Every structure is written in structure tokens, then in C-alpha cells.
Amino acid sequence: MESLYMTSPETVNSIPGQMKGKIPEWINGNLYRNGPGTFDLGESQYQHWFDGLGLLHKFEISNGKVKYRSKYIRSETYKKNMAANRIVVSEFGTAAFPDPCKNIFRRISTSFQTDNTLVTVTPLRDYVYTASEAKVIHKVDPKTLDTISAHDIEKFVVVNVASAHILRDPDGTMHNLGNSYKGAPKYSLIKIPVAPDGEDVFKKAEVVGSVPFRWPNSPSYLHSFGMSDNYYVFLEQPLCINTGYLMETMLTRKTFVDCLKWHEGTKTLFHIIDKRTGEKVNPKMTYLAEPFFVFHHISTYEEDGNLVVDVSAYEDPKILYIHYLKNLRSEQRDIYPEPTVRRYVLPLDTSVGATSGGNLVTLRIPLLAPLDRTMGRYCVITKHCLIWVWTSHRLMMDDVGRNIDTYLEPAVRT
Ligand SMILES: [Fe+2]
Questions:
Q1: For a FRET experiment, which of 49, 81, 355, 409 has its CA 20 to 30 Å from that of 61?
Q2: Which of 82, 80, 68 is nearest to 38 (CA)?
Q3: Concatenated DSSP letters of 229-258
């Protein structure tokens, strides 16, 4: 595990993998993984595991054998840092050292525009795309892992920050969720149709619909969202970005993490948006749940007039602070909080006439089957994403969602 927190060189040419166990010979293909690879640059060090420079890994699986290669994503952040041999662009949990040769305005413009797309990798047509919570994605050659081009979504739609997890329809249409501060601050759902070869992937991007922030100066921290055939769903969770602090950090050495505030006791709010019209579904209804913190939506699907939303949830955002490298590299490091798999059933048809506080959910909850009881490993495959969820076997739902360690939140009329 320690190697995950250490700087790694890239492996430009394929090397044979060292095997443990056996890979079935019928498995053939390429597995791409993205993540932080460099944590130390000259005399400077990143502070948080989410900050490291993005290293893209490729595992070529063929006839029971694996070959491996990796390459750093050639973002502007990577190039600037390497040229300076120190961290010059701020990241999630690290404030860059300002360049003393630049005035305050140039420092701001260069230090808070990371394009270090270290979080996800998405295959689309003949290429793969790397993304993070920034507004830039990178197009990468899937054979060599060379970075081909950078694409800035803000050139085509007014969105400043986007979710790290782009979702796709079966035809390749991509969807994302971002924050927009032009006019009234709002969350915006973005549709990105498949672009012809050679055209900027974002050229035909459009905002499908928007939802105002619950608190105008405190958008919720969003890392992912959910999508079914006909609906988007996203959460306004109690972990919020204080935009006032964010402005201050541009002049100080505080970080993005320093701008996040957990609003203890504040309910989590679900928003459902119609993918075709961009309109909010049941705008007079409020879909609320107890406070929790989510990085990842697991799956979203429609069944019998309901939207079923599975998330991997924590009681609070402590997991963010566990990932400081100082803690991860410590022998007495804090223990990872365990997430729970929670399934929320949101009724789409509210014409059934439930009374205030009544339960509108009549759907029998399908079994969320564990693949491996010992390890508590769940595999969820949907049309839009595939996510592995690691959790405790204690959290397995029974077929009516009554297990004591599961969460079935009735939606109520308010
Ligand atoms: Fe993620």
C-alpha cells in the first residue's frame, strides 16, 4: 500500500506483469486506471493524496498474461511543475508557492487553474479521456498513452467546475454536472453529443438544465452524480464550498479543502432533472435524507414509477482529511471510515395522494447481491457506468430493505 503514496516513474514501454494467481484465458482487453503518481517535486511536496500529478496506467490482458505501461498526463500543470521543478499550481489540498516574479493578479490567474486530470479515465470511440473536478479533460492515445489534446469545457458552456465522473449513454453521448457562477449561481447539467472525429469533443456541449444553489454562496461539494435513461439525479449534501473563503485563498496559502464546511445536522437534498426537457421533476416536492457525505453514486435506474438511487455514503466528510499524505505515511494513521451502500427510492409519480409525511414508496426493493460475502464486494453494472463498491458484508440488504444496517429512506411530501 505504501507505494500508493510515493512518487512513481512512468513506464513508457510495456513490461511483462508479475502474476499472482491466474487470469482466465477468455479475458482479453485493456484495463486503464488513472491516479496520482508524483507527490514530490524538487523541494516541494503535495499535501494530499488527491493532488499528485496524474499517471495513467494500462494493463494489457491477453491469454492469461498481463503487460503494463504507464505515462504521465501532459497537462499544463504537469509541464509548468516540471519546468520549475516545484509545485507552481495549487491543487485540492496543496497551495502552490507563488512565483515571486509575478504580481498578485498573475499569481491568482496561474495558481488556481489546475488541469491535472488525475481522477477518471473514460473510453470513447478510438480514444480515452482523463478528467478531474476541473473544467478541462485530456484526450489520450489508448495505445501509447500519449496526451493528444486538452479540451476546456468553459469555451463552449458557462461552467466553471465539473464533476470528475462523466457519464455516458449507450450511444456515446456524455453527460456532466458543473457549477456556474454567471448570473445567479447554479448547478448545470451538461450534455455532450458525440463529436465527429477531429472536432473538439465539447464543441456541441450544451447546458440541459440548471438548479439554483440552495445557499447562494455555498454550493455543495459534488464529485459525481447519477443518471438513468430519462433522468439526472444529484445531491446537495451538507459539505459545502464557502466561495468567500475561496476568494481569500487566492491571496493566501489556504487550500480548496480549507474552503469546505460541513453543516452538521443539515439534511441532504436530492434533485431530479428530466434529461430531455432540463426541467426539475416534481418541483413542489422536496426529496430529503439525513445528513451524509458521498463521493460516489453507484447506480441509478427507473422502476415502476420510481427512481432508485444507490450511493456509497459516509456519516461525515472525515474521509477527506484521512487522505492527507502526512497521515497516510504515518505508522499511526487514522483508520478509514467505512462507507455504507445506501439505496434511496424516489417516487416520480406523486399523484397517488399520500398525506403529508406519508410514505409514497411501494416498490419492493430488489436484492443488492454481494459477490463475495467475506470481502463484501459488490459489483454494480448499469448502462451508464460500472462501479465496484467495497464494503462490509453486514450491509447486505434483504429483499425489502429491512436489514438493520441498510438505509431505505422514504420520500415524504413536505
Ligand atoms: Fe471518484
A1: 49
A2: 82
A3: SSEEEEEE-SEEE-HHHHHHHTTSS--TGG
Beta partners for 129? Answer: 122, 139
Predicted confidence at residue 131, as pLDDT, reads 93
Distance 119 CA to ligand 1 centre (A): 6
Which of 50, 34, 176, 32 has the alpha carbon at shortest distance from 114? 50
Distance CA 159, CA 186 (A): 9
* Alpha carbon distance 48, 71 (integer Å): 21
Domain residue spans of the chain: 1-155, 231-414
pLDDT confidence of residue 9: 95
pTM of this prediction? 0.82
- 313 residue type, one letter: A
CA of 180 to the centre of ligand 1 (A): 21
Report the alpha-carbon distance of residue 117 to residue 264 in Å, rounded.
Answer: 31
Q: What is the full DSSP assignment across 76-145? A: HHHHHHHHHTS--S-BTTBPPPPPTTS-HHHHHHHHT------SEEEEETTEEEEE-SSSEEEEE-TTT-
Measured in Å, residue 101 CA sits from the centre of ligand 1 at 36
Find out whether 257 and 48 touch, Cβ atoms under 8 Å: yes
Mean pLDDT of 211-215: 92
- Give residue 224 CA to ligand 1 midpoint distance, Å: 7
Distance 203 CA to ligand 1 centre (A): 25
